Automatic annotation (TrEMBL), chains A, B:
PANTHER family: TRANSCRIPTIONAL REGULATOR, MARR FAMILY. The keyword Mitochondrion does not apply. Keywords: DNA-binding, Transcription, Transcription regulation. InterPro entries: ArsR-like_HTH (IPR011991), HTH_HxlR (IPR002577), WH-like_DNA-bd_sf (IPR036388), WH_DNA-bd_sf (IPR036390). Residues 19-117 form the HTH hxlR-type domain. Pfam families: HxlR (PF01638). This is HTH hxlR-type domain-containing protein.
Length: 119, 119
DNA sequence: GCGCCTAGTATACATAAGGGTACTGCACAC
DNA sequence: GTGTGCAGTACCCTTATGTATACTAGGCGC
């Protein structure tokens, strides 16, 4: 990494402009973001369905991380103006391009669970 | 993911026992951990050299994340009893097995930087 | 024998990120 | 009119991370 891009106005990663790993981490740096992307890989999903698929996440956090992913162009948010409200989240092209990263995580985790099962 | 492993005593990931992605995230969930592993991939490295290679990290954080990675069996810590002190960090076999994950992140980041350069 | 060097460790304090729960407004079922 | 589902928002609290400083122990210059 070059030492020139040491700017990080909003707490983003120093060096995300030039360091590939930091650039990727600047997108995936939320606790739930990789899991959200992982759950959206098969196809679009509504808010509460996503919440059910991600045990442990709170509404507040899920909203916040979805908004961040939307701002980064990873997730698309489609609002149907009906009652009850219907909001559909899906991966953008850029989001789908993260598939190999999530897949690598999945493969490593599968191997870990197989070799070192817990309780 | 099954709903049974909802235990997470110390703030670890719910479901890390059975969900592969969560299992991987339970190891990589620190802001600097992926970068530390990335920097250690080429070979062993001393503390201050690591610090120099990771602009933006503080001594305190680097120490803490190295200890966490050590506890997870990702990083080996070798202390030479000399003056001045000499401590060498390196990846364990388990740590090296994370190479594909870091590589996927690197590739994605490279592509991003190429397609969407910043300033 | 005093101050400065290395390679860290330890402490204190501030801010950022994560988390829990209650609450909204509207429609539908009962 | 009570309960349920949807897609959030508001409020408050706990971890995680960031910053700064002081400390270890021996060796070196003077």
């Amino acid at each position: 990494m070059s030492a020139e891009d040491t700017d990080t106005p909003g707490g983003a990663f120093i060096g995300y402009k030039t360091c590939p790993v930091r650039r990727t981490l600047s997108i995936l740096n939320g606790k739930w973001k990789p899991l959200i992307i992982y759950e959206l890989l098969p196809g679009p999903c509504r808010f509460n369905e996503l919440k059910r698929r991600l045990p442990g996440v709170s509404q507040r956090l899920l909203t916040a991380q979805l908004r961040a992913l939307e701002a980064d162009g990873i997730v698309d948010r489609k609002v149907m103006e009906v009652v009850p409200p219907h909001v559909e989240y899906s991966l953008s092209e850029k989001g789908r391009s993260l598939h190999p990263v999530l897949q690598a995580m999945e493969i490593w985790g599968e191997n870990e669970i197989k070799n070192y099962p817990i309780s």
